[in-house]
Each structure stands twice: as C-alpha cells, then as structure tokens.
Amino acid sequence: MNVGIILICILALSIVTFTPQAFAQSENLLYGSSSFENVPPSIIPGKPTTFDIKFQYTTGPYAISNFSPVIDVNPDSATSKVRIELQSLESLTQRQIARIPVTITVDPSIEHEKIFLSVFFTGQHFISDESYKSAWTDSVTLEISLQDKITIPLGKCETIDIEYTISGGDVFTICKSQETISVKAIVKADSEGSVTFDIPEYVLISLTSTDCDTENDFMVIMDGEKIPSSISNTQSGNLVTVDFTEGIHEIEIIGFTILPNPVPAQYCGIVEGYDKKFLPPLDQIDNGVKPEFIRCNDDLVLVQKIDDTPACVKPETKEKLIERGWAIPEPIDKNSHTEVSIEEIFMEKPLSYWKSLNFDQLREYNSQSEGDDFYYELGRLIAKEFFQNELTRQGITITNEELIVHTGWANLPDPPIIGYNTVVNATDGSTYVMHTSVQGNRVGEYFEIQEVVFEPHIIQAIADGKPAKFVNKFGESPTIYVVTEDGDDKLSKHQAIIDFNQTNSVKFVNNSPDTIRIQEVSENKIEDIPKDSWRTKAIPPGEEITLQFNSTGYYEFNVKKITDSIPGYFEHHASGEIVVFRENMTDYTFSEGLLMGRVFIQDAPRQEIPWAGLGAGNNRGLEIGIVNSMKEAIPNANEYYLAKAKSLIPFDVKVIIE
C-alpha cells in the first residue's frame, strides 16, 4: 500500500521534560515479529513432529543473550498431553533473522481435535543481564489427526517417560499400570522389528535377597500371550527387548521375583505384578528404593513419622500417630490438576523442604516420579503460596473458598519455566487476575495483577443479540517520542491509531541524541532500501516532524539513525506500527484486517480483555487466547470476550476466542 507523506514542519524545540508512561512499566520489552514455518496440516498422536519458529526483534538492546521462545498450550486440559522440545539461542542481535526448530509430541490419549499454541520470547541484555520479553505474541492452531490415534484400552495407566529404541515401527504410548504394577506400551509396526525399553528400577523394580535364593526376572506379555524376550541388567535398571510382527500390539512387562515356599516376606524383597509382598520400608530403602516410592503390603498404609522415617502401619494406627503429632498428616493428591490443598505438603514433604533444594536435586526427584506432572504440581503449589502472600501484601481479602491455580505457558529447559494464573473475587466486589512464573521451586521475576472489568453495555448487547457499540477514542493526532535512555533506544509507544475521518497525521519528536529519519520497514544497508519506499527527511535532535497519510491501512515503520559510524548503513533505532482507519471500512485485505485488528486489541487495557496470546499470521482469523483461569472462573467467558473484542475493532474482522 502506498502512503502519501507530507512533511508539515520541522521545528527547533526548547528543552521539554517528558516522562512517557510506557517507561514506567516493570518489564523491558522487545519489539519485532515472528511466524511459524513448515507447520504440517495435522499432528499424528505419539509421533514427534518438527516445525520452525522464525523471528527477529527490531527494537531493544544491540544484542540479547539466551533468547528463547516461550510456548503456551491451550486449552489448559491439553497441557499435560503435549510435550514440546526446543532450545534457546546463545545470542541474537537486532534485525537478525533466526529460526528455532520446535519438536512437539502429542500423547495418543489426548481428547482434543485441535490445540492452540501461542508464543512469546524472552532473553537477557547481553551486558547487564536484565530480563527482556517480547511485546508481541504469535500463535498457530494444530489439528490432531484422530484417525491415527491408537484406541487400545490400557485400563488405569499413567503415562511415563522412559527411553526406548525401535526398528520397524513407532511407540505410541508408554505407561505404568496402576492395576497390575507393570509397564504397558502400544506399538504400531509397519513391518517386522523389535523394540528395546530401558526400564529404570524406580519404574519397575524387583528386589532379591541371596538369603532366599531367588531369581530376578521379567514376564513379557504381547496381545494377551506370554512371549520370549531378551532381558539384561544395567546399573540403573533393565533393558527389555521384544520382537514383533507387522500390526498394532499391546506389550506388557511385569516385574516379579520367584520366591521359595514359605515366603519370608520380611527378607525376600518385592514381588511386582498381580500378587505382591513388600519388604519393610527401611529395608526397601537399604535395597535402593527411594522414600517416595516405598510400598506397603495389603491392609497396611504408609506413614511418614516426624523424624522423616517411613513406616507401614494399620489405618487406625496411622490416625492415632497423626493425632498425637508423631506423624505427618495426609499429603495432597499429586494427580490433581486443578486445585491444590491448603496444606503446604507435596509428596509427603512440607513445601519448605522443596524450596530448599537445588535444581540438581529437583531433577533427581523428577526423574523418579511417575508421569510428567512433578514440576507442574510443585510449581502450582509454590505459585499458590506466592499469590496468597501477594494478596496479603496488597491488602486484598478474597471470598474464594479455595485459590485455584491454573497453568499457562511453559518453556522447557530442565527445570522448566511454567506460567501460572488465578482469578480471585475480593470482598470489595472487585475481581482480579494474577500471573507469575515458576522455574523448578523458584518464583520468577514476572508478576502481574490486573483488576478485571466487566462492562454492562457488553453484557446487555449479548443479551439483546446485537453487536456492542464501538467507542471511538482516536480523535486526536498521536505523538510518538523517540528517545535514548541508559544507552537503550526506545519509543514512547510503538503503536499509533488514527481515525481518518478526524485526522490524518502523526507527530514524531526526536528526543534522542542522534539524527534520525522515519521510514517504511526496510534494510539497514542504504543501497538495499527500495527506491519507492516512503521515508522522511533527516530529523536532528530536539526537532520534530509530522506525517500525513492519504489512505487507510496498516503501516510498519522503522526509526533509523543517520550516522557515519558504519559507511553505507543506517543504524536501527526502533520499530512500530500505525493503523489508519475509518469506521465500517471495507477497503483492506483479509491479512491486513487481522494485523490492524491485533493493534486495536493490544491498545486496549488488559483488564478489559485479558488475552494470553494474539495470532494474526494465519488464514483463520484474529486468534485471541484468553487466560485459562478466566475461562474456568467465569461462565460464558468466551462469549463475553468475543463481544468485547469485536467492540474494540471498528470494522469487520473475524475474531476467534481460544
């Protein structure tokens, strides 16, 4: 789209003191763009799929270290069913275009036909190590190929992550049966082949004692029949190799110990399988069993005594021990994904214990836990404590019977950085949404609390079945200040919106020490800048320029420094976006409408529409991911925020609330 630019005036300014509101925010922002590339038409459950995220930042420090995408999975119920692997970049410089491969694996037990990924980016200043976060987000919707789902029933079986090698097919599910205490797997074989499972002892263990002259072994069952297999011991467990033919097979591996008769259960170890007898807890520990994986024989329950030693006792004895203060109360249910107990206990240990561990110790616990929820559930409890303390600090009393904490985005180093959010109702009638992040057992620097606003005219419009009215607040010409603070190049705001019926101009004021010019987005190398692209004259420090637009549309701009430090180049200072609109206009393309609509949503206060991700780089529509806790806490949240989003955009744009 062409833009007519009229240079209205260049004025020498007197010294003006100006503190832009944007600089008062608690986080440093990067501005730029990103997109998803090589995304397949659908994801096959159980099969790793790789695509790329392409990105660059155009405003911020000269270089960013540890630049990394942070990916949020929606809906919330799909988070534990999706595994994402990616890496960060050691360094990235302004305007550098980079790509990071992303590998995603969807558990075959997933119940959703599609998932929604939104991404933003984080990093550190290459000198000061200050944290930075992208001001933009991008998103993509992934279809799940249901015809490739394996639906063999496995009973009560919890997904686990163990290593394997396979030839001639794919492994679609590996889980530990809670009914038979065995490992089960589903293999889809394209031809004859074999699979070898590396089963750690904490997943399936079979302890033996030389005093009992026992034989340690595994039983392997395929499709309901016992089959021969190859089993070898390793330092940490056993390798089990199974041959198979073409087709879909259920493989079950049962650990067991052949015991003499009579069975001296107090010495002869654990029988894993359909019948089981266990050593006393301290003997299990002596044989290498971690405390959290101790098991008791039938009719006995595990209790943690106050001296941190385990014991197997009768249920009525456990109650008496707890009443007398000789044992720790019942732990939380570690399989709960939506609510945490008010007791600060996780896996039978107080929260203070978990907070005292280092990352290596957490990794050890995670490697021994069943399923993928260790970090999610520990982080949920830590985030809950943080939210409660923050509410107390701010003097907010809530009416919620229980603080329900939801997961949001997750970035997967080890330990992963996981986002959490919650919605609370206060006694003064206000509603707040809170956000933070946790890595392992540490709350991150990111924290945000917003009061949620529900507008009566939006609610009434929904009740009447009519669109809510657009409220025009864009009657005045915007001003953008170009500044340099503490060595960083910035703008007072990176987005401007102009109502073409009331004005057609935007003013740029150069409060930086450099001579600059405003131009259409292009390269830094002067000879590579298109001759027909729009640009202004040079703007010396302390002066200003006004641009006029001759048509509506979406305009991206660069602020370039005009210096002699690098001959033949302009140095990049900052980037931004300008939307010129008329109410109910129609002269724009579908993709242009999405980009303009995104700017209107970003311009609105977050308490009006608490989005977690915005996606405009697709052919579906403007995708708005609403914070998970809002959707859980508020009935018809999607309907309300769809109406609200449409009321913020003064022309027709397809909006999708995710």
Description:
- With 658 residues, this protein is mostly beta strands.
- The chain has 5 domains: 38-146, Immunoglobulins (Immunoglobulin-like); 161-258, no CATH class; 353-370 and 373-452; 479-581, Cupredoxins -  blue copper proteins (Immunoglobulin-like, Sandwich), CATH 2.60.40.420; 590-657.
- Helix content is 14%, strand content 39%.
- A hairpin with a 6-residue loop joins strand 34 (611-615) and strand 35.
- Helix 6 (456-464) crosses helix 9 (637-648).
- It is globular.
Question: Compute the gyration radius: what is it?
Answer: 30 Å
CATH architecture call of the largest domain: Sandwich
Unreliable parts: 1-26, 207-216, 257-276, 331-343
CATH superfamily of the largest domain: Immunoglobulins
Overall pLDDT confidence: 77
Helical run tally = 9
Q: What is the terminal-to-terminal distance?
A: 31 Å
Instruction: Give a count of the beta strands, DSSP E runs of length 2 or more.
Output: 36
SSE class: mainly beta
The shape, in one word, is globular
